[in-house]
Amino acid sequence: MDLPMTMKKIKDKASFKINYLTLNKYFDKYEAKIKKLKDIHKDERCFIVGTGPSLKETNLSLLKNEIVFGVNSLYKAMDDFSCKYYAISDIKVWNNHKKKVSSLDTLLFLSSEVGRKMVGGSLKNTIFLKTKGYMSVTGEFSKDISKYVVGGHTVVIDVCLQVCFYMGFKEVYLLGCDCDYSGTQHFDGSESDNKKSVSVSGDWSRLFHVYEICKNTFEKDGRKIYNSTVGGKLEVFERKKLEEVVK
């Protein structure tokens, strides 16, 4: 027999509370592990590599001896370099690439829906990050990822830039962050896994706004984010060619 609507609401609310508390319990298990990452790369530099088509025009072999954050399907381009860290926040991206990503020799960060779905699982060398709200709404950038990260509509912001800040990096360089879907969307010719993403809609203004928040947070702390992407439409950050940075 079906429950009356009022009973359904009570039951759903109770179920949500139990699931929420269970999730928090699992996430809290990673707090001590995350805190060990605080300032471990203080005053160093790193490179966050997206999956834009500009990677086809980028000499990725220059990253061979650098600290690299990879995201999503970047593993397909990792012939001449490796990623010390890797991140995914979109559940559709995870479902499409989890087998390959899980086999990488890297420290993997999972947040947003992926984190909620996978937390408490048996993945090795993986850190799950709680996600709280959206940066475009609250204007908040999380400086303490042991508590949570703030959603930013792209894994570069959802995870990478907030993790980089927490780890103490002084200079962060973005590659393959084209912010332009007028042609090929990704370096491998594929289209976005998530057809409802901000970028696919063609309106990048919200993403640019969130990048501004990241820029201001870093610069107020005496640090800097540079855009080393070949071309593209991301003009929030000062541009520096990869060849000028890595000599």
The topology string of helices and strands comes to HHEEEHEHEEHEHEHEEH
Tell me the domain tally.
Answer: 1
The first-level CATH class name: Alpha Beta
Percent range of helical residues: 25-40%
Q: Which structural category do the helix and sheet elements fall into?
A: alpha/beta
Overall mean pLDDT: 88
Low-confidence stretches: 1-18
Distance between the termini: 72 Å
Cα-based radius of gyration, to the nearest Å: 19 Å
Query: What is the 3D shape?
Result: globular
Characterize the largest beta sheet: strand count, sense, and whether it forms a barrel: 8 strands, parallel
In terms of DSSP E residues, the strand content is 15-25%
Specify the CATH architecture: Alpha-Beta Complex
Strand order of the largest sheet: 5-4-3-2-1-8-9-10
Note the total helix count.
8
- Assign the CATH topology: sialyltransferase cstii, chain A
Number of β-strand runs: 10
Descriptive notes:
By secondary structure, this protein is α/β, with parallel strands linked by helices. It has a single domain (5-245), classed as sialyltransferase cstii, chain A. It is built from eight helices and ten strands. The strands form two sheets. Strands 5-4-3-2-1-8-9-10 form an eight-stranded parallel β-sheet, sandwiched between helices. Strands 6-7 form a two-stranded parallel ribbon. Strand 3 (85-88), helix 3 (91-102) and strand 4 (107-110) form a beta-alpha-beta unit. Helix 6 (155-167) runs parallel beside helix 7 (205-220). The longest helix is centred in the first third of the chain and has 24 residues, at 5-28. It is globular and about 45 Å long. The N and C termini lie far apart (72 Å). 36% of the residues are buried. The model is unreliable at 1-18 (pLDDT under 50).
